[in-house]
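haha ok so turns out i had the wrong file open the whole time. this is the CORRECT one, sorry everyone. sequence first:
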Amino acid sequence: MSTYPLSSPCAPRGIAQGPDGALWFTCSAGAIGRITVDGTISFRRIPTRDGRPAYITPGPDGALWFTEWWSGLLGRMTATAAVAEYESGPGDGFLFPITSDEQSVWFGKGNYLGRIPFPYVDSMTLTKSSVSGCLKTTAHVTLTAPPPADDFVVTLGSSNPDAVVPSSIKFKAGTTSKSLAIVTSAVASIESATISATGGGRTAKATLTLEPMGVKALTLTPNPVLAGDPVEGTVTLDCAAGPGPITVDLSSTQPAIASPTTANVTIPAGSTSAPFAVVTTPVTKVTKPAIKGTANGVTKSKTLVVNPGS
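then structure:
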């Protein structure tokens, strides 16, 4: 048997292994002690010096929780963060026993038991379940309960490198939901990405569909136009063309009145738009053909008002 003298009057009552592998123990002199496997001892003071820590346990949140039998407070600490103290609820009586399960910390006070529920990931939802590759979208992570401290970390992941999420997000105490941005890249064909969030031992997932980019807008100048005069058109994509060039098919609902001079235009990779020309023919009354641009199944149109010439 080995013994380890304590430099501070301590009278340890509770001892537990921490997430760092060291043993942590309560010290009635107002501190929490730590001893490593080689016998190195250190102390961390608690805010309430006469609180008299009693028992200690590792919590499901990766922190150490302890009772202060004289002050009636609950303490929480991690290997790196400062010690925090919390009220233990109503009622009189000394705080003594404390333990934990997968989702809670339990403690005894007077003639009742107290329970602190710990959160886990409840759901992952997407603002849009389908987006053009290269556009951002937003995911929302919801917890089952608010964390007691500001260091509850949810780990994030994506099954597809064309949909990138942060490695993790951190929840503040008292919050149950948080949003994050998903940054996507241009794709040549429809792809899917599974976005996951893991926290508190639970994982929630959502599926994001990435689509090849389409036409965002089509403009015509001048509009209105006198019949017989030319028109300049422009088609614009959701973002810069990628991963290669994008072909936009052009058409008219009344080609005998107004028609693009070419069946399609190609927007080079890295560019966002391309011009095209429209020819018009004489009319006897105001006519309103629609000029359309289509890329990857996405169509945008613009009505061209053709007025009779003078």
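The chain has a mean pLDDT of 92.
again sry for the mixup
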